[in-house]
Amino acid sequence: MRAPAERLSQTEQPPAMRESEGTSMPSEMQQLQNRFTSLLNNLKRNSKIVELMKSPLGQYLDSHPFLALVLLVFIVMATLPTALFLSFAVISFVVTSVGFILLEGCLLFIGVLVLLCVLCSLSIIAFSVTAILSAFYVLTSNVVNQYQIQRSRRMKQDTSGKSPTSEQQTEQKSD
């Protein structure tokens, strides 16, 4: 079996192309044919293609052109779905990362708001409890002072001989 480079030399064209030269072909078609031929020649001269064709896989595909065509069509057809899947995976990763960052930011913001509300509530409760305790302290101290004043008056009256009822009556008349 001949190597692909040997099958078609640069000056030699495939039989189908040779037959079409006899008939009159439009110039655009000839330009297209020339471009295609130059593209094939460039591919055959590419060092990577030459290495591939010398490998066992390249020799096998050269001897089985239908399988080579199936492989080529599969690769071409699989390119778009593979690219779409990879772009979907990358976009999903980016969106997930951004979403996670936003979610964490929102959760931290909500946590800060909850902490702020709890601390404000605690300060209001502490102020209220302090006000109630202060009022209770003032009330209790006034009651105790009044009790002690009354008691000291009783003691003075007991020692001086006046009755506490007559003193209370005089206080009520003066008011």
TrEMBL record:
Keyword hit for Plastid: no
Superkingdom, taxonomy of origin: Eukaryota
GO cellular component: endoplasmic reticulum membrane; lipid droplet
Sequence similarity: Belongs to the LDAF1 family.
Composition bias, Polar residues: 158-169
Name of this chain's protein: Lipid droplet assembly factor 1
Topology of the protein relative to the lipid bilayer: Multi-pass membrane protein
Transmembrane parts of this sequence: 66-86, 93-116, 122-144
Location of region: Disordered: 1-25, 154-175
Main location: endoplasmic reticulum
Cellular localization per UniProt: Endoplasmic reticulum membrane; Lipid droplet
Keyword Zinc included in the entry's annotation: no
Keywords: Endoplasmic reticulum, Lipid droplet, Membrane, Transmembrane, Transmembrane helix
PANTHER family: LIPID DROPLET ASSEMBLY FACTOR 1 (PTHR14275:SF0), PROMETHIN (PTHR14275)
